[in-house]
Amino acid sequence: MDTHEAVLLKLFVLGILVNAWMMSSVSGAETQEAPRLRRVCNESRLQWEVEVCGEHFKKDMSLIHPQHWCNLTHFISEYHLFTLCTESKSHSVDCYWPNPLVEGYIIRIHKAFFSNCSDEQVVWVDPPDETLITLILIPIFLTLAMITLVVWCSKRSDILA
Ligand SMILES: *[C@@H]1O[C@H](CO)[C@@H](O)[C@H](O)[C@H]1NC(C)=O
Ligand SMILES: *[C@@H]1O[C@H](CO)[C@@H](O)[C@H](O)[C@H]1NC(C)=O
Ligand SMILES: *[C@@H]1O[C@H](CO)[C@@H](O)[C@H](O)[C@H]1NC(C)=O
């Protein structure tokens, strides 16, 4: 039974080592190739491109009666297109998405169209925020899980030793 556990423990540690090695080689490859492959985000171009998205959105919204501007069902597809537009434009000018510039612009659009909507009227499920939070939380959880595993494994090997 003890040897069985020891084998499992070794497999666990090996798994962590392989994982850490893979992560370090992946991030190593990224830092080495980043200057060659990844061009820098041109913020002035991004600003311009995002405003083009905004103009399309304004045009689409003008076709909807202002009376319906607080009703998400009436403009969800236009809003979705606008979000997609900011995403594809960000990538086309080598910027990450979401980014502070795009978020600032989206807030301006919200102020222009939805400032008079009460909270009950529009229930915002903001895709950029959601994506951002997910993107932030996943590595944190992974790191915590790794630390827990490492601590647990070292405790186990102390007991076994
Ligand atoms: C960013 O784009 C603008 C407009 O296309 C250009 O004039 C400017 O030189 C670019 N800046 C950089 C740092 O590439
Ligand atoms: C929003 O519009 C839809 C479709 O016209 C309608 O069924 C719904 O009752 C509206 N919701 C509100 C809160 O006005
Ligand atoms: C919000 O209400 C104010 C005052 O009634 C009005 O001037 C403004 O145009 C409205 N804005 C929107 C986006 O409906």
Task: Explain this structure.
- The chain has helices at residues 2-37, 43-62, 72-92, 100-114, 127-160.
- The longest helix is centred in the N-terminal third of the chain and has 36 residues, at 2-37.
- The protein has a domain at 41-122: Receptor activity modifying family (DNA polymerase, domain 1, Orthogonal Bundle).
- Mean pLDDT is 77; it is low at 11-19 and 25-35.
- The chain is elongated.
- The chain has 5 helices and no strands.
- Helix 1 packs antiparallel against helix 5, helix 2 packs antiparallel against helix 3 and helix 2 runs parallel beside helix 4 (100-114).
- It has 161 residues and is mainly alpha-helical.
- It binds 2-acetamido-2-deoxy-beta-D-glucopyranose (3 copies).
- One 2-acetamido-2-deoxy-beta-D-glucopyranose binds at residues 66, 113, 115-116.
- One 2-acetamido-2-deoxy-beta-D-glucopyranose is lined by residues 42, 44-45.
- Keywords: Cell membrane, Disulfide bond, Glycoprotein, Membrane, Receptor, Signal, Transmembrane, Transmembrane helix, Transport.
- It is found in: Cell membrane.
- The chain crosses the membrane at residues 132-153.
- This is Receptor activity-modifying protein 3.
- It is a single-pass type I membrane protein.
